[in-house]
Inverse folding.
């Protein structure tokens, strides 16, 4: 219930135009394969085990040489909310490993 309340507040306070733009962007490829393959910065890809876009996250990870891929168990698309502690730990571990 606490998480549902936070999400409800987030959506109620969201700018409607920004939300529409985010939905449009989901229907438009953001990156080409060659652009992904040219990413040379340290990259962390985090997804939830129940995230419907997990296969796309895996393909993104495979396209970025040296990227780190983390699947959080029992998490959906909002893995940072579903598994906040595990998400934060994965992010901190990744950041701590950077020079």
């Amino acid at each position: 219930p606490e998480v549902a309340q936070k999400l409800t507040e987030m959506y109620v306070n969201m700018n409607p135009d920004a939300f529409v733009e985010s939905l449009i962007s989901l229907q438009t490829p953001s990156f080409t394969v060659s652009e992904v393959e040219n990413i040379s910065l340290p990259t962390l890809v985090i997804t939830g085990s129940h995230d419907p876009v997990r296969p796309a996250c895996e393909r993104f990870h495979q396209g970025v040489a040296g990227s780190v891929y983390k699947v959080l168990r029992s998490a959906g698309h909002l893995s940072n909310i579903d598994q906040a502690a595990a998400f934060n730990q994965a992010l901190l571990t990744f950041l701590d490993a950077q020079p």
Observations:
- The two ends are 40 Å apart (CA to CA).
- Residues 66 and 72 are 19 Å apart (CA to CA).
- The longest helix spans residues 84-96.
